[in-house]
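Self-study notes.
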Amino acid sequence: MARSRKPLDRRALREENDAAEARDRDEVVEGDDEEVEDADEDADADAEDADADGDESEDAEAEAEVEEVVVAPKAKAKRVAKPKVPKVAKPKAPSKRSRAAKVVRLKVVWVIKDNSAKIVDTFDFNQRPEAEAKLLQTQTDKKGLFYIELHKVPLE
């Protein structure tokens, strides 16, 4: 059975990598400085020889060697990590409450309707006998179909 590995700390790995790169750059820069110093010494020695011999061709060679010196790239400045400031939770704005619909009280009434569902007359719930009497009267007086029905209406 394989053992699980300890998770790697990315920040520590990053710091190690940056340190190694900085060391490599320092070694390269120091090596280039030594080469530049050697080239300067060679150029000075060649210039003295050329002055003694009076040869202009050697001066040109010395100047060419000096021009070939490569300037090392400047080391980038390390970023300074800002101190971490704990984030403060913003207070939540009070949520807008949706108003609950007003509860409308209803009452039940008897309604007499004609064939086209038009209301002919209304009676309170406790007046059913009067509503039935009115229904019989409208059926005898007028031609057509009439019926009685319960309705819920808002309480006045």
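Second protein, same conventions, sequence then structure:
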Amino acid sequence: MLSKNLPPVFAFSILLLAGCAGTENEARIRGVNASPSPDMETGPEGPALEGVLVSGQDATVMPARAKNSFLVTFPAGNGKPAAVFSFQETDINDRRGLALDIRNAGSQPVRVYADLNGNPWERGYLAVSPGKTGTLYIFARRSKIAASDAEKFSNMRGIPGGKMSAGGRAEPVVAKQVKVFMVMPRQDAHIQVGRLRPFGSSLIPNLAGFYPFIDRYGQYKHKEWAGKLHGDADFKANLVKEETDLAQHPGPQHLDQYGGWAAGPQLKATGHFRTEKCQGKWWLIDPQGRLFWSDGIDSVRSSQTTRVRGREKYFKEPPPDGDHLARNLQTKYGDHWQTAFTAQTLRRLRSWGLNTLGAWSDERVTRQQKMPYTFFFKSGVAGQTNLQTNMLGQNLRAAMTQVRETLNNDPWCIGFFVDNEIHASTDPAWFEAYYRTVAALAKEILPNKLYLGSRLDYHNWPEESEAHREIVRQAAKYCDIVGFNFYKFTVEDMVLPAGIDKPVIIGEFHMGALDRGLFHTGLRGVVDQTQRAEAYRYFMTTALCNPAIVGAHWFELYDNPTAGRFDGENFQIGFLDVCDTPYGETIAAAREIGYRLYSIRALSGNSGSGGSKLVP
């Protein structure tokens, strides 16, 4: 576990200049205990579940005065103390999920998580200030949409009404247990839990006159929300509004040309990115020898396509190639829209406090040499349960050689990932041969670039199997930086296996909501845009305060298409929607982190260092 000296970080705030070195009393509390946005439909709620039983897992529980309510005490420590609430199996197939009220009975803010039926993919959270009560919402998921509904909305992970697939149970969806827990509480925490009940309706709407349900701009036709586009004139109005915002927020100060910490210590400059452990924390070092922490975003590109063929009735005016985003950008920026998009995107990212173009970003953007970037290779090992190292070597050698002159000599390229979320094998020996082969080629062909790993999707880390832990050991042996995709609400508990001291980069994370016209929250669901912004702030603060982590990249720049991309994902996960409109709440959170990036990182406590501060 992380050292007990790691300072506390709290759920609902961006801490002051000292980042996570402060206490919760230094936090600026906001965006908590509030009712969901009116654009998010949580009604009807109830009826309350009866006959609720509770047991503690490293937590103390006792009945409260209110019926079916319980007092829970979570002791301070490095674990995950929990209270498990059990009740009669309840059909929630046509509901959006389960809700429960949390009252903070203690004197310090608390951040509480809850899993439905023991499934970590059906997880919600709530941050509650002392003496206040809030509602924690857990969105139900199913392994797939029922055939009768899928026939009406094909190739869509989320459908009108509120049903979401992936990561849950097959229909019918039932509720029988809720696990309420905290992660590494820094003080004893006291809460009251009660009024467990289903919430919302996930019934599909009346289909009489429903089709087409997607308008010319790619938006859901039958709902209104803040920021929805209603005509081409809105593009111009949004441009004017955003111009004012960007002018007022030009970007963080005291940085070098790469986004490194110019006010920080001067270290050895090599002309390329490298890593170094400095006063107990791992860092990237930029080409000029300045400390750098990679605050990035993936898939910076101007295209998001959806399938039209066979689904023509879904769309009012479908673009021929199914790319509403590209058509919207052309309408907004004119004939030279691609050039305008590139310039606007780089200006936006700087203004938002970001400093890295993540994986799958358009080379027309990365080659501007105005922002550091990471590259992505696909090796072709998918499905190779028996790894063919010769084929792997041949494929990867060809791919690396093709871009060698571009990447190896480009100081703006941090490094590269090879593959994403490999599921071909769970055998550590397979991965040892894989990483060994890739690392040897990397050193031979791209010696100036960092090998960032394979984006291991171990979302319950560190609570993973021993096989997964051994795979991480192999990754650490051969990679310059161990790459994970972490769809989690926090990484304060992220620690590598015993004896491994290596930097870590997070290749993907995100959170999404259902209050802006899309039908799926993405892999981590929140109730609305306010909670989404709070979740971003907290995740990034815990990443910055973790001494092993050298960067985190949000997935991705734009929302998925409303009717689903190639695999049906139609997640509300962008910093921008399909009409190129920024999500203001998330942008504000990104700025709060990005403009204080190095203050938070440098002034946070060091593992085993007694909380010492990094100074020039």
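Instructor comment on the second fold: Residues 1-19, 21-31, 606-616 have pLDDT under 50 and may be disordered.
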